[in-house]
Design brief:
Largest sheet: 7 strands, parallel
Strand content: 15-25%
CATH class: Alpha Beta
Number of strands: 7
Helix content: 40-55%
Radius of gyration: 17 Å
CATH architecture: 3-Layer(aba) Sandwich
Number of domains: 1
CATH topology: Rossmann fold
Shape: globular
Low-confidence stretches: none
Structural class: alpha/beta
Length: 251
């Protein structure tokens, strides 16, 4: 684990950065690929204090295949290889489906689904050439199975990501490369804090989540570290829900 080179897309903040923190504490080398390159580099600079063997931040729009290819090449130049890919980058516009412009729908698919495809396809080529296996983790959502009127585009993209993961798992397993997904429940991030810390939503958590609290990015990070570990070498093609039991509750 300590010598792994890990690429985290959307790694500059939120769930992506929480994942990066957990890998850093295991001594991994990190590549934070984010559409905001400056913020990615700032975040990467903080990981050394947590134990990362090395860390860089790279600007990368995952929906742009040329940018993904450049990011992958730079990661390999910097660290010599890629052992783990975490497909975390994503967007969720939260627009009612009857008001949703086709362009917005297409953008969500391009970033969330096509972005994961570009990254997985290009990184898997490197992993196969390295000949030492690898780990690919897709950050999906409970929305891969359930959704609502303001998340139709998001749910479609995350359901697609789940099947993308399963499909790659069937192809890459012969190379010792596992593909799995993590489906986060409600997670407290900078983007969601203003909502979930209001009295009403905060009280709602107590009734909807058996654990009685909202999740934090590191909850997802610990799961990602496990799926990237040697202990998970025979875990392939699954979705691990990390939701505090939220989806186990009958409303």
């Amino acid at each position: 684990m300590g010598n792994q080179v890990v690429v985290v897309t959307g790694g500059a903040r939120g769930i992506g950065y929480g994942i990066a923190e957990c890998f850093a504490e295991k001594g991994a080398s990190l590549v934070l690929a984010d559409v905001n390159g400056e913020r990615a580099q700032e975040s990467a600079e903080r990981l050394g204090a947590l134990g990362a063997a090395g860390a860089i931040g790279l600007e990368c729009d995952v929906s742009n295949r040329a940018q993904v290819a450049a990011m992958v090449e730079e990661a390999c130049r910097e660290f010599g290889r890629i052992d783990v890919l975490v497909n975390n980058a994503g967007i969720c516009p939260f627009v009612d489906v009857m008001d949703l412009d086709p362009e917005v729908f297409a953008k969500t698919i391009d970033v969330n689904l096509m972005g994961a495809y570009h990254c997985t396809h290009l990184v898997a080529q490197k992993m196969i050439a390295q000949g030492e296996g690898g780990r690919i983790v897709f950050i999906t959502s409970l929305a891969e199975n359930v959704t609502g009127p303001a998340q139709v585009d998001y749910g479609a993209s995350k359901g697609g990501m789940r099947m993308l993961m399963v499909g790659f798992a069937t192809r890459l397993g012969r190379h010792g490369i596992t593909c799995n997904a993590i489906a986060p429940g409600m997670i407290l991030t900078d983007m969601t804090r203003s909502h979930w810390e209001q009295p009403g939503p905060a009280e709602e958590i107590k009734h909807r989540v058996p654990m009685g609290r909202i999740g934090v990015p590191r909850d997802i990070g610990h799961a990602a570290v496990f799926l990237a570990s040697n202990e998970a070498e025979y875990v392939n093609g699954i979705t691990l829900r990390v939701d505090g039991g939220h989806q186990a509750v009958c409303a």
